[in-house]
Structure formats: structure tokens, C-alpha cells
């Protein structure tokens, strides 16, 4: 019973922290997202102009606002289209809330194992953020490029990936990332039945 109460307490604390810290988290994440977006744009006729946290126009809260340009050809000097992509901060904060809450609630035999899991999870979490938020910010760019190339109804890979994330795929990937972190940590730490069974 005590373990169940602890798990409920962790979940409540995670929800409270997520609700209170959404905008500070977003501000901290901007440099990471901007760097990842520029890496994705490299080699394409796309340029990332800016990425910032801005007030949402049609509802309360804030959004990530990515501004970029698309050239018709990579060699063109003048861009053909200006692109503005927005993702709501409330949608983005779901990833750290689910990821870290599930990871911290997962049974562990010792504090050492929990610390090891967190160390393994940190780079996985950064990769997870790039696969989710950055992909959703970047998906208009290949669509615009395809339209400029004359394709009437383009559905590029990034757009299909974004649709998958919006249809619940984000949650699936978050859970898979936690399972991966637990599995890697278990290979280096003491393995017990409580560590491999789901909470």
C-alpha cells in the first residue's frame, strides 16, 4: 500500500511541476530545438531564421514559433516562401512529464540503479525531444519544397511522422524510450525481478 501511495504522489507532483514549469521548460529547450532544426535543414533549400516562445494567438498559453524560409533551389539566393510553424507548449510538456514520471515510478532495487537510469535516460530524452517537437516544427518545410517543385498534393515523410505523433504516437514513443532506458540500465546494474517487471 505504501508503494502505491508513493507512485500516486510522484504522479501528482509530476503533473503539478509540468503545469507550473511549462514555459520555463520551453525557454530552456529553445537552444536545443533551434540547433536540431538547423541540423535537419542542412543540405536542404531551407533556412531557419528564428525560434522563440511566443504567446498563443487563439488560446491561452504559449507556443514554440519557428520562422524559416524555403528556396526553390538550393543554389537560389532569394527565398521563395517564408514559413512560420507553431507547436503549443502544452503539447510539448507532455513528453517530459510522461517520460520522467514513468521512469521515476519504475521499480528499482537501489538508489544506484535509479541514478544509473537517469544518466542513461538524459541523452535518450534529448533525442526523444528532437524526434517529436522538432519534427513537428519542421514538417511544413518539405511540404512547401514539394509544392514549389510542382507536386499537387505532397505528403512528405516528416508530415506523415507528424500526423503519427498527433494521433497518439508521441505517447508510444515516450513509453518505448523509458523501456529502452530501463533495459540499458539493467544491463549495467544489478538485475532483479522487480526491475524488469512493469510498475
Q: Give the termini separation.
A: 13 Å
Number of helical segments with 4 or more residues: 8
* Mean pLDDT over all positions: 83
Q: Could you tell me the number of beta strands?
A: 3
Strand line-up in the sheet with most strands? 1-2-3
How big is the Rg? 20 Å
β-sheet strand percentage: 5-15%
Sheet having the most strands: 3 strands, antiparallel
Low-confidence stretches: none
Q: Which word captures the global form?
A: elongated
Helix proportion range? 55-70%
Structural class: alpha+beta
Q: List the secondary-structure elements in sequence, H or E.
A: HHEEEHHHHHH
Number of domains: 1
Can you tell me about this structure?
With 199 residues, the protein is α+β, with helices and mostly antiparallel strands. Helix content is 64%, strand content 14%. It has helices spanning 2-20, 22-41, 89-92, 94-105, 111-138, 140-148, 157-188, 193-196, and strands at 46-55, 62-70, 81-88. A hairpin with a 6-residue loop joins strand 1 and strand 2.
Characteristics:
about 200 residues; alpha+beta; three-stranded antiparallel sheet; 8 helices; elongated
Topology:
Elements: H1 2-20, H2 22-41, E1 46-55, E2 62-70, E3 81-88, H3 89-92, H4 94-105, H5 111-138, H6 140-148, H7 157-188, H8 193-196
Antiparallel strand pairs: 1-2, 2-3
In brief, what are we looking at here?
The chain has eight helices and three strands; from the N terminus they run H-H-E-E-E-H-H-H-H-H-H. The chain is α+β, with helices and mostly antiparallel strands and 199 residues long. It starts with a helix and ends with a helix.
Amino acid at each position: 500500500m505504501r508503494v502505491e501511495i508513493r507512485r500516486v504522489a510522484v504522479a501528482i507532483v509530476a503533473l503539478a511541476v509540468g503545469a507550473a514549469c511549462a514555459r520555463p521548460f520551453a525557454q530552456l529547450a529553445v537552444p536545443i530545438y533551434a540547433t536540431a532544426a538547423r541540423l535537419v535543414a542542412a543540405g536542404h533549400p531551407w533556412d531557419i531564421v528564428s525560434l522563440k516562445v511566443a504567446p498563443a494567438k487563439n488560446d491561452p498559453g504559449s507556443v514554440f514559433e519557428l520562422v524559416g524560409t524555403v528556396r526553390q533551389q538550393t543554389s537560389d539566393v532569394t527565398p521563395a516562401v517564408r514559413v512560420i510553424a507553431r507547436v503549443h507548449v502544452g503539447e510539448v510538456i507532455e513528453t517530459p512529464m510522461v517520460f520522467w514520471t514513468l521512469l521515476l515510478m519504475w521499480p528499482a532495487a537501489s538508489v544506484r540503479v535509479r541514478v544509473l537510469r537517469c544518466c542513461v535516460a538524459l541523452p535518450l530524452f534529448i533525442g526523444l525531444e528532437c524526434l517529436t517537437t522538432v519534427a513537428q516544427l519542421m514538417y511544413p518545410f518539405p511540404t512547401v519544397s514539394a509544392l514549389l517543385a510542382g507536386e499537387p498534393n505532397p505528403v512528405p515523410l516528416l508530415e506523415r511522422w507528424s500526423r503519427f505523433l498527433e494521433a497518439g504516437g508521441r505517447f508510444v514513443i515516450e513509453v518505448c524510450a523509458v523501456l529502452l532506458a530501463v533495459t540499458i540500465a539493467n544491463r549495467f546494474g544489478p538485475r532483479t525481478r522487480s526491475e524488469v517487471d512493469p510498475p
